[in-house]
Task: structure prediction
Amino acid sequence: MAAKYREFQQLNLPSIEAEILEKWNREQAFEKSVSLREGAAPFVFYEGPPSANGMPGIHHVISRALKDLVCRYKTMQGFQVKRKGGWDTHGLPIELGVEKELGITKEDIGKKITVEEYNQKCREAVLRFKDKWDNLTQKMGYWVDLNDPYITFDNSYIETLWWCLQRLYKKGLLYKSVSIQPYSPAAGTGLSSHELNQPGTYKDVKDTSAVAMFKAVRNAESAFLYNAAEKAEGAGAEVYFMAWTTTPWTLPSNLGLTVGANIDYVLVRTFNPYTHLPVNVVLAKALLHKYFKPEHENGDFAAYDPAGKALPWSILAEFKGKALEHLRYEQLLPYPANTAEKSGGDPFRLLIDNFVTTEDGTGIVHTAPAFGADDYKVGKKYGIGILTLVDREGKFVDGLGEFSGRYVKNYKDQPDYVDVNVDISVKLKKENRAFKVEKYEHSYPHCWRTDKPVLYYPLDAWFIKTTAIKDRMVELNKTINWKPKATGEGRFGNWLENMVDWNLSRSRFWGTPLPIWRTEDGSEEKCIGSIAELNAEIRKANEVLGGDINHHYLHDGILDLHKPYVDEVVLVSESGKPMRREPDLIDVWFDSGAMPYAQWGLDQEKLERGEDRPFKAPFGQNFPADFIAEGVDQTRGWFYTLHALGALLYDNVAYKTVVSNGLVLDRNGNKMSKRLGNVVDPFSTIEKFGADATRWYLITNASPWDSLKFDLEGIKEVQRKFFGTLYNTYQFFALYANVDGFAFREAPIPVQERPEIDQWILSSLQSLVKEVTAAFDDYEPTTAGRLIDEFVDEQLSNWYVRLCRRRFWKGEYSTDKISAYQTLYTCLETIARLAAPVTPFFSDWLFGNLNSVTGKHALESVHHVLYPKADESLIDKGLEERMQLAQDASSLVLSLRKKVNIKVRQPLQRILIPVLDPAMKTQIDKVEDLILSEVNVKEIQYLTDADGFIKKKIRPNFQALGKRVGSKMKAVSAAIGNFNQADISQLEKEGSYSLEIDSEPLILQIHEVEITSEDIPGWMVSSKGALTVALDVTVSPELEQEGNARELVNRIQKIRKDNGYELTDRILVRLGQAGPLEASFRQFAPYIKAEVLADELEVVDSLQDGMAIEVNDQPVTVWVDRSPQSQ
RNA sequence: AGAUCCGUAGCUCAGCCUGGUUAGAGCACUACACUGAUAAUGUAGGGGUCAGCAGUUCAAAUCUGCUCGGGUCUACCA
Result:
């Protein structure tokens, strides 16, 4: 007996998935999908490594679904797609997790716990949830190689990172410099931005703020200020720049004043409120109100009363910030420690930068390069040098007179602490150098461990000189295909434009150590690029410095490149001095950015030959990536570091296409967080609804890059609508194909010999294949999914299957029936393949169910076969168009029936369709039978112009006409609106029509208007677009009788079903007490018998044991039993 | 604070790039129909100042600017 298509009680996605998963594992389906394509063109994919020290969330499902579907699609397109998995294992979250677990802080490391033990803990914690991740990977159907992942803490991985760093070092792109970082003097350590973002670090505090006055140096550049000041009679001679600060302790370190180029500034004549001396001050015009009262403008300067509140002022000049650039001023608080020479630059000048605002202060920013990132940046730009007059404990250095040795904030909890900021302010007041001193409340960051205020402090750090190749990176970025485009041009593009050098240094314990050894004075250094090199250097050091040094490493090979071991290694410089390792670790983002190289590790032979790319195979075929995908939050993370390293190391892009997916929010649009308790557990979601439904929902609901409001209701809908429909269609097919034993053994019937409707669905299917392929090729899976969704629902299930149902269950196993089976089979199998990238389980299941019976494909998994290719020869747009007409016409008729309340079972005589052009009639003609049977009407009559029934409507074709007439459009439109029926026919007959618009002639062409039929006088019509349909709603006695017969058939079918008869059972029917219905039943007896499979239909006068039913509100008694032949 | 994305029906989204006059789907809701796919399906209906304002244009959901609201990233700064 032939194999049967599997039939099911109901759709159960999770159980299908379990079954398919088991099959994949058994058959090594993933491995096979790669090995089958051996020798084929590679499609290179990079897996962004997740960190397995936290639980995976639903947002991981979307990015992985995205990655998976692209890889599966490309595999089906014939490419070989290797997918090496990876784990990100270093970094602060892991350290923090370990500290929390052990109940320790950073200070305890090296005291309560050794670095060795600490790092061992980190190593253990790193893959804590690896099982969960692997489990999710499996369950969601993400095909990635988990057997041989790259792990960033592996020696071979770190070794490759070292090699990369050394390459940068050799190119002169690695340098040590200071950078301004958050620093906690109380804790004696720098803080990362992550630490600064701990809750509660920003606190509202009241600080002493001061507006200091910097005296302008009089010279040629500043002449315009002094001249303006002197013009005003009786004004003081001196000009001051006003600058505000909330940290007066930074004033001794001041080296510049920064203004905004386009900000309006004014020179104001007034008095110093403390010394009452006449002064001229410069500040932003927009901030005048903060210091001066409008009513005192142009007040009486001569009558100024120092004791009174009234401070007269007047504007002497107004100018843009640009005019102030390069002006010089006298140092505010000169001391031996802060002379211009000690600054190392050319300080005390006015600078321009765009960070200046007029929100607060004076619009002139006091700039102390050591204590602010902006200050440092602008200071560097202008070369004003740098002064760090506060030491690491937070106190002033020597050489600052009365302030030396004082803490700038109360870091030591001194009970008698006197605020040095107040003292500085008082000094300024006395020296006529302060305009306003007051307490100011603002939000300021505090160290999350000591609760003391942070200060921004220059710390040594190693940098990669990314700015050196900024232009090249921008250029390379333009060749990358970004999805969405805006992220690449906007967010990423801007980021590149504003790039700063990459600060690599991290003062941590668990991470990749910087492979640089230096002599104590920093005059000699070495950057190590491999383990072999390190060993050689160790041996050398042992020889030069003596055998005791590095005694742990006398053997070959270092067991662990992490701290503390590498820190114990002492190397020797060229001149024979000992060198120690720079204590920093590197930014974990370097780890992941270097994964294209480090995932393979170094090839020792290539290394020895000094090759440019000494990485193990298959690096050669795996760089750059064709495709990567991660969340948008990686734009400045992984996307950036990959790009930077690709450009820095090999002047190449690291990836050709990048898809950045948006966030997953909860159903109300809030970010998911543990705190809010609105996180969606991916495991239970998949378990309950299935991975495919989840994937389909995630992909089709919104473009991957839009943020997605995750709602379980949406998954349910997808389950019901898409999967339910597709499953039903399959189930329908299987049911009848099994009855008829269809196994696609017959030769395919040439498509042009199949019925019109088969040709149509196949044409639509090929169009679908074309569009879906285009969408996937363009990395638009949402479009692809929606197209498939629509086809399955609207075309296949709702039209093709519905209209063709009878073909499957009626009659013999004829050519027509075989055609129907072949057509539906092709549709189902093609859909399985089209959707396979998104719905890997269901597609494989569907494909398997079909293929196991027909054996049409030698390969048993849908993921091993090729993606469908559109057969253009089967696409018939005319056919698709007329089927659309049929659907529209049917819909219109049903809508008319609805309006007059005549049910579809009641046959009607005719519909009228006005046709304005012969082509339309030809089109409808071909689908006439479909329309008639669908709406249960006997005939279609076409009304043409000649009949004179049609009333036409004319409308301008704005698109065509607008281009030509432009601004006359309104007048033309009005003129057309006034057309009568005669005008319209004239235009139709002659193809053009002369108008007069604004007393100018205008020839209207026929293609510049749209003519539709509006009405058929005396009929009820309905229309959609150019199609208008009228329905004859007269129910003649004949039609009524037929309607009764149909109604009876419906009742008997119900009885059959209620009685539980088999589809093929034949029955006997008796009808009694039929009254007025009797005539109907007698007349249509043959029809009724055929429909309900009755061997006998008797209409009797009286029936005793029948069932009382109603047919069109008329009572009748009916008796049904199985025919003896069926029993 | 800056950059960027988003704002269309009660909800989820198309349409916007390339302007064209009645703004579409699905879900939900209401009514009806179908009943040999049946815990399925269909049809119809109500439901919109296309966030707001201004501009460009004969014509704006669509292009431009601004404002408001939401998300994200980067900052946190005198």
User: Anything to note?
Assistant: The CA atoms of residues 159 and 530 of chain A lie 5 Å apart.
